[in-house]
Amino acid sequence: MARGNGTSGLTLQQLERLLDKRRRDLAKLQKQRAKAQKRLDAIDAKITAAGGSGGGGRSGTGRTRARNESSLQDAIHHILSKSGGPMSVGDIHDKVLSTGYKSNAANFRGIVNQTLIKDKRFTSAGRGVYQLKK
Description:
The protein contains four helices and three strands. By secondary structure, it is mostly helical. It folds into two domains: 10-64; 72-132, Arc Repressor Mutant, subunit A, CATH 1.10.10. Strands 1-3-2 form a three-stranded antiparallel β-sheet. A hairpin with a 2-residue loop joins strand 2 and strand 3 (129-132). The model has no long low-confidence stretch (mean pLDDT 86).
């Protein structure tokens, strides 16, 4: 059973005034939000100019995913093919980053480890050590 919202006893004219007031309030709030967003964008630009990453971790504020020319799987495959033997996850992680691969992930080493486990081109040569599948 639906509950009333307390406006069932109002006349049509009173309801229209109530709607107009809510629209004005909404317009004010949207204007305040736009001003605040403009200030945040200016602060983000200053942070980026200072060498930081703008956005503060909030969605919709300019924070974007890092883009790379090749996939992580291909970067790891390239590194392992040049190594000539098994490598530890930490060494692979360091080599991937040294090739210029970009990632915003806080746990990028874990992502590298998961990739090594899941991709069928790689095989475990021991605990935490991987090589190309022969």
